[in-house]
Amino acid sequence: MEQTTHQRLTDYIVAHQEVFYRLAYSYVKNRDAALDVVQESIVKALSKSDSLRNPEFLKTWFYRILLNESMNYYRRSRRLVSLEEAGLAEAAAPQGDHGARLDLYAAIERLDPREQTIIRLRFFQDMKLEEIARVTETNLNTVKSRLYKSLGKLRALTGEECSYE
Amino acid sequence: MNDAWERARETYRQTPIPEELEFAVASAVRAGSRRRTSRRAIRRSITAALAGCACFVLLINASPTFAQAVSNVPVLGRLARVFTVAEYTVEDREHLIDVRLPALELEGATDLEQRINTEIQTRIEQVLQEAEDRARETKAAFVATGGDPEEFMPIVISVDYEIKCQNDQYLSFILTKTETLASAYTEYYAYNIDLEAGRELTLRDVLGPDYLELANQAVREGIALREQDPDNSYFKPDEGGFTSIAEDQTFYLNQKGNAVVVFEKYEIAPGYMGMQEFEVPLPTAGT
């Protein structure tokens, strides 16, 4: 049975590699860095696959590793970002057809990393709130309140009604 | 859902995927699996040693005849071991190959030792040769149909072995070859050796003349049990599912010395179920 968990994990990773890459990229914003993050997550996950007791949680388990790796990279790189680059990013951000208002996609990046995670998992990965709670290792109510707070912030940034439901 | 979200999702979906991704994922999968195997090997040998000690103590305490018998045996156990003779890695644009090649050492049964070692050697060589040919063909077909040679995803092959049972009387190990193209497929070769008789074991040797019946019974019960979980499913007999084990069904002996029959992926169940193993209790296990 252990072998099949490992095999299932491998199959799952190989089948969804593009999804993982996109998610990693949305944090690190750099092609090589995103590749590194994906690779590192896979190596960690597969070498620790014996600690995955319940194969049912395979998906959220892998997402947790991927997000941890992405966040670590994001935090490390933020400290190293030069002032010009930071300035460029600010200048480049408010584009799109809303004039001074931010585009929703760009607005998401203004949220703090934990809020970004919830928004991305919910709206780009179509995860259920319970799954998000498992990935982020927080309880369901925290996820809910963070989600509503983030949606409020996005509304303020884009001037649009961002409610999803 | 409103337009702003649809646009944001579209932007997200348009994140370009670099062509190296597949290669990067394939080599990470390989590195991760290898790291795991080495970790597991250590843990396994520790638990085996512990289990061995526990049984030993228990038996001596439980049976005075056994204690006496042991004291008459100068060296406990025959000298037999399986060890790694070669370990190598090939990595290029067409394939990533990872091999841990076992060899057998049997004291006092040189013929058998040689025969099995030669068989392992030739089998691995043949398997690797086939895989290389296949990689070349697949790549040629890929390029001929307009694929960019740079984008070709390498075939990942790994050859490894695992010792399933080693005791006084028996030695059982399996050799695995896993080839990953789009999804992974593993082939198993089992070697079961009767150390006392100095020959390879068959299912009949282990289970007796009724071996077919006993094994089929165990497999059917195993399937029925696993099918209670709605996530599991097996092919029905009329869909090419399980009817009976083959005369030369792959099996190995587990730590307890019981036969475990092995069905490869797709053999009796859909691919997601992976390889299927069923332990067949010995006929005398009821005592």
What topology emerges from the helices and strands here?
The complex is a heterodimer of chains A (about 160) and B (about 290).
Chain A: H1 2-15, H2 17-28, H3 31-47, H4 58-80, H5 83-92, H6 104-108, H7 113-124, H8 129-136, H9 140-158
Chain B: H1 3-13, H2 21-62, H3 64-72, E1 80-91, E2 95-106, H4 110-144, E3 155-166, E4 170-180, E5 184-194, E6 199-200, H5 203-207, H6 211-227, E7 251-253, E8 259-263, E9 276-280
Parallel strand pairs in B: 2-3
Antiparallel strand pairs in B: 1-2, 3-4, 4-5, 5-6, 7-8, 8-9
Helix pairs in contact in B: 2-3
Description:
The complex is a heterodimer of chains A (165) and B (287). Chain A is built from 9 helices and no strands. Chain A folds into 2 domains: 1-89, RNA polymerase sigma factor, region 2, helix turn helix motif (Rna Polymerase Sigma Factor, Chain: A); 100-159, Arc Repressor Mutant, subunit A (Orthogonal Bundle). The model of chain A is unreliable at 82-99 (pLDDT under 50). Chain A is mainly α and 165 residues long. The radius of gyration of chain A is 17 Å and the shape is globular. Chain A has helices spanning 2-15, 17-28, 31-47, 58-80, 83-92, 104-108, 113-124, 129-136, 140-158. In chain A, helix 2 packs parallel to helix 4, helix 3 (31-47) packs across helix 4 (58-80) and helix 7 packs across helix 9 (140-158). Chain B is an alpha+beta fold. In chain B, 41% of the residues lie in helices and 25% in strands. Chain B contains 6 helices and 9 strands, in the order H-H-H-E-E-H-E-E-E-E-H-H-E-E-E. Chain B has helices spanning 3-13, 21-62, 64-72, 110-144, 203-207, 211-227, and strands at 80-91, 95-106, 155-166, 170-180, 184-194, 199-200, 251-253, 259-263, 276-280. In chain B, the strands form 2 sheets. A 6-stranded mixed beta sheet of chain B has the order 1-2-3-4-5-6, sandwiched between helices. In chain B, helix 2 packs across helix 3 (64-72). Chain B is globular. At the A-B interface, helix 1, helix 2, helix 3, helix 6 and helix 7 of A face helix 1 and helix 2 of B.
